[in-house]
Amino acid sequence: MIGYTTLGTNDFKKSGTFYDHLFAELGARRIMEDDHIILWSNKPGAAMIAVIKPYNGQPATVGNGAMVALSVKDPAAVESLHTKALELGATCEGAPGPRGSNMNFAYIRDLEGNKLAFYCMT
Q: Is the pTM of this model over 0.85?
């Protein structure tokens, strides 16, 4: 159902590099970029995620309560992505581990403060 999600950035180059390295762990690559937006995906027609400079020219800000959740294959991938994000300069918003009886989650904030979750059903 989701076509794409955008995350605001004030440092296009730094955000682009962060997500290039993080999304490589998911087999995703840049599929489009210009001076306003960079989009990543891991296969044609799949959901995309982007960093974008706000159209109105105002500084990008973090949405309180907003989060992007990325589905991954297993708990090891949840932990691996969390670790990779921290290595790239993200901050921890919740260590990898089980949540409820059949899910595994980890949470980070990217270099701009945007919140992401990595999760899988177990």
A: yes
Euclidean distance between CA atoms 56 and 27, whole angstroms: 32
Instruction: Catalogue the E-assigned strands of 1-122.
Output: 4-8, 29-33, 37-41, 48-52, 68-71, 91-99, 103-109, 115-121
What count of residues does the chain have? Answer: 122
94 Cβ contact partners less than 8 Å away, ≥ 6 residues apart: 105, 106, 107, 117
Cβ-contact 26, 42 below 8 angstroms: yes
Fold exhibited by the domain 4-121: 2,3-Dihydroxybiphenyl 1,2-Dioxygenase; domain 1 (3.10.180)
Nearest to 98 by CA among 121, 68, 70: 121
pLDDT of 13-56, one tens digit each? 999 999 999 999 999 999 999 999 999 999 988 999 999 999 99
Measured CA to CA, the distance from residue 29 to residue 39 in angstroms comes to 8
